[in-house]
Amino acid sequence: MEAKLNRFFGATLYDRVFLGFEVVEVIDDELRAWSPSEHWAAVIDLRYSAKVAWIAQSVFNRPVRRVRVLVRGLSHNGREQPV
Q: pLDDT tens-digit profile of 53-64?
């Protein structure tokens, strides 16, 4: 996933926005990921999620219609405590 993101967005943008980006899981058609900061999580969520979903579909060979990015360590399940 990292290599495809780097190739698609280019090294400069990847190093600025996606450094530390980590896919946590794919549940149904939602990719859940972490970013090292709240700012970059929001940037990825708002500006790049459609392209990330498209790349993830090719990597995981399954439909990905939504990308949800949180700050590293927060739980993607709202009823759970942070991990």
A: 999 999 999 999
